[in-house]
């Protein structure tokens, strides 16, 4: 009978929660009742009653709590603060490393998050942004053609007409697809080539919310030959005078009346502009008397739709195939499809041909986000490492506090309090760094981010979370480890101080792995960029001057201007062409032998001597010749990819192939493949079309290209300018070097590699700060051991090696982990490029070696100190 | 601590502690109350009230010798303190005083005749 015992778990539960002072009496009573019940009832009833009683005893007055009332919390915090301050001041070096390292990490993180936030803020300033869509035209046959961000002229009207139930407003932007357009004051005193001028429908302000300082948004763009301009442009042309009612001369021929002044356009819009001219002005370009089909073929108008609601987008998208069939000319109908893209997605997600300006990219955002997180992680690890290392020194303090009656929870609170305070200091320092660094960051990230952003609730919450998060994570390990020390062991010298070594080692490995990955990543990114920019594009881009000529009066004077320019021996060759070679192309429909219907092909309109000017080798046939007049219409030159795509066996066999509706034309030449767009894309088929018509300069020939010898560049340019002025008086002369312009193609990568370079450098710096702190700590710990070794005959170098050995092992492990990780990450990144640099394994070794070398320098300071210390000095104490 | 007033259960248990002189511990108090009044209390309630009385200084406790039926655990024996005795007396006195003030007539017939 007596052997029966109540359920163990309930008994244990009672023992767990019950105040030890009350436990014996309570447990005794519970047992007594249990024994009594077993005599009169079944075991089950007894068990049940016991459990019931245990639960009934579970009340506030019986629960284990601190037996002595603790001093007022506020008083304790004062004490913690005092102890913290003393510790901070006594170990200045440590404290500085700790706070500074974390501050760098947080500052990097904040800067990067500012960048990303800005990228995501694009085009969101418009009140109707969620209902504005841009419609893209994808015009491809068998994968060749164009993915155009712009549309033919009549698309907007037709859409509004057919789908008025879904579309509220449409607005078109047009700029002749010209890089620059000339503007001047009436007296020609100020004349500039403007790059940011668009013609816009009068509905512009119904769709977008750009604020007007002067003028009425309803009427500013309704009448032909009117223009509005931004405040800074108003100052540029009219200085302090009121621009309203004044005139600006457009392309030297038309006078535009200024009807409004805009606030300057914010940086975070996917199209930047300084001038908007009324679309109604364009009746000569968009002339209804031109055969209808060409209106639906040429697609230079960026077309935006304001929809009734978001649902309308899906409906509209579904109606697009029918729309294309209804309106587009027969020969392109089956190759065209339409795509609606939300305005707010354009900046990060749209990467079409003919974007108004280069957009951002989601990849860059991801890369930056991961760098930001990496750096923050490295810095936090640092902080955790140094905090734990430092805390281990405080075992004695913990022992003392415990002896004097500190509770475990109190100690935990104390350590957490200290680490949160420390991280708060870092956050404050980080904010200071951000304030100082932001102007520079803005400069090279090409942003215009204001400091006030940091006062947004998002950042305030982020900073608070960061402070608490890093503080708690870094404090939690020492807090729990130290607070669980037994006072006796803690007070005994040197006991338990080696706790957490493995933990710290693991963290150092993580830290260096991340740093090495960042280093390798930066290296590969730089390599890739270098490859994109500097590898052979297949044409000569050096010493080529481009002069914008679109819609200039050059047509009549082209030949004489060319001949005049060529009189200078340093001007080697002159041609004209449709787009900047190597950056952009247009698309034209061609019908070649063996094809049933015409198909779109990338195309460039050119003038004679194109091949010569750019040094593009002919692989078959001949170049266009000035002696054969019919070349203008009956001959074409194509590239090698074109020949391959057509399935013709050799380049030679392409010569003489017929083209055109009546098969009158012949292919006369094949040029070697060259990169006529950026190397983000592979080389596609290309048709080079000679166009000597005068009106080609209205739309199809945008630049005059002059190849110069490279000697006396300034003299040659001023010679060209003289000839220009003589042939076209009153027309601004503008030029740029092809080479410089092509660099812009890789701006995104350039910016990205710069930023990664800086941040990976910082990450290494932070990791080294951490390593330095740890080696200092370790030197401190082992100074007696080292001294004894010395006394017993250890040489300086042995001690040096012994000391630095285990740090090296960590770095080596980091390398082993980092290499495959970096390889996989970079493979993934490179996959998005058409041309990929071979990942250079030398780079891996270099990064690994750099990490080892930097770590070596960091550690060796302490190692040398340990080796050179005087044992007598160190051992005399004790 | 809210005054020196005794609650009804507190008074009952305090009285029982007095009755059980030197044998008053949780289970005994519970049993005694059941025997004398027929009220069944849960043991935890008894403990809670005893603790409260001890907090008020009306009883003190000490641990007894260990006994077998409790798995060798000691009992916490509660003893009336002078203050405890005093407050019992006061309570008793107050009750008597009030009781004595009830008019005789109310006690004999008045209450019964009164129509509810």
Descriptive key words:
heterodimer; A: 878 residues; alpha+beta; 4 domains; 13-stranded mixed sheet; 7-stranded mixed sheet; 30 helices; 52% helix; elongated; B: 116 residues; mainly alpha; Arc Repressor Mutant, subunit A; two-stranded antiparallel sheet; 2 strands
Overview in brief:
Chain A has 30 helices and 24 strands.
Helix fraction bin of chain A: 40-55%
Beta-strand content of chain A: 5-15%
Largest interface: A-B, 20 and 21 residues
How would you sum up the major sheet of chain B? 2 strands, antiparallel
Write down the overall geometry of chain A: elongated
SSE-based structural type of chain A:
alpha+beta
**Biggest pleated-sheet summary of chain A:** 13 strands, mixed
Number of discrete helical segments of chain A: 30
Low-confidence stretches of chain A: none
Widest sheet, order of strands of chain B: 1-2
Total number of domains of chain B: 1
Q: What fraction strand of chain B?
A: 5-15%
